[in-house]
Amino acid sequence: METSPLPPLTGDPNVPADAVGLVIGTEDATPLEFWVALRPGFFLQLDDVVALTRELPDGRTLQIYGVVSQVRTRHDGLRFDSDVFLVADGVLPAEVSEAAQIQVTAIEPEVFVPPRPGEVVRKASGEVRRVALQFDRMSNALPCGLSRDGEPSFLNVDFIDGTKGAHINISGVSGVATKTSYAMFHSAALGPEAHNTRALVFNVKGEDLLFLDHANTDLAADQHERYRALGLPVGTFNDVAFFAPPRRDDPEAAPQVGSRGAGVTSFFWTVRDFCSLELLPFLFADAEDDRSQYTMVVATVTAELRRVGLAATGTDGAIVVDGNRITTFEALVRTIEAKVQPDDAGEGAWAPRAVGIGT
User: Fold this and answer.
1) CB of 272 within 8 A of CB of 317?
2) Contact between 65 and 72 (Cβ < 8 Å)
3) Which of 70, 271, 288, 318 is 20 to 30 Å from 127 by CA-CA measure?
C-alpha cells in the first residue's frame, strides 16, 4: 500500500521548523508507545495525531504514526514537590518541560521497532493524518465527528452494517452525554441499502427525540459549519414514526407523552395479540432450552393460546376461554394457571401428561 510521506525536513535537520518536538530518551520507547518532549512555543493536546520517520540500517524508511494519550508538564531537576516555591522565588534554577505520551496507531511498512531518541515528531494533518488513523483503508467511511482541532474522523461502515461486524460502542455518562442523539444524523454511507434499512431507537430519558421531524431551533450557526466540514446535511428526519406506551388505566389507550399531542402511536399488545402472535416464550429466558421440562409446558400453552387468539372476534383485543372473557394480562395469567393445574385424574388441560405437578 502506498502511503503519503511526511513533508521534507526544512532548516536545521535536528530541529526543523515544523517539528512539535523530539522523541525523548529518558523514557522507554517501544513499538507501541513512546514520549515526545515538546518544543517551546508548541503544544499537543489529547487525541492529536503525530507522525515521524525512522531510518533502518538496511536503508528502509519507516513512517510511524500515533495518537496523544497523555500530556504532562514538570520542572526538570527538582526532587521535592515543595521545591516549586523555591523556583518561584528565584532560589533554585529549574527548567519547565512538557511532554506527550504517544500510542502508536500504524507503522508503514510494518516493521515493529521503536523510534529512536531525538527523532523529529510532527503533528499530522490532511492526508498524513488519514494514513495515521487508517482512514485511507476504509472502502466505505462514515463521518462520526470532528477532533478537538477540527479535523474530521470516520468509522468503517464494514464493521457496522454486518459486512465484517455489526457493533458500535458509544461511551459516556448515562443520562447527560446525549449518546443516542449523537448517533442520529443523515448520511449516504449505506448507499442503495439505505432504502432497505431502518433504525430502531429506544428512548427512555425525556422526550427530545419525539421531535426528530422538526427543525432544531437551538442549533447554533457554527454547528452548521461543523456538519458541513463532515460532509453531512443538516435537516429533519422526514421518514420517521414515533411510538410510546399507553397511559395506565386509559380506556382509549392514548400514548403517555406530555410534550407532543399528535403524531405519536401507542405501542402495546392486546391480550389477543399476545396469544395469536405466540409471545409467551419471550417471557422466559431459556424457553428454548430442551433440557428444561417446563419448555414442554410453554410450547403446549403457547399453542393453546394461539388457537384461542385466532378464534377471537371483535375489536377490543379480548379473548374468550371456556366462556370467560379475558381483557387483561393479569386475568390471562390466572387462566393459564388454572389450565395447567392437574385435575382429579392428575392431568392439566394445557399441560403434557409427562410433565410432573411441580413443573
Assistant:
1) yes
2) no
3) 70
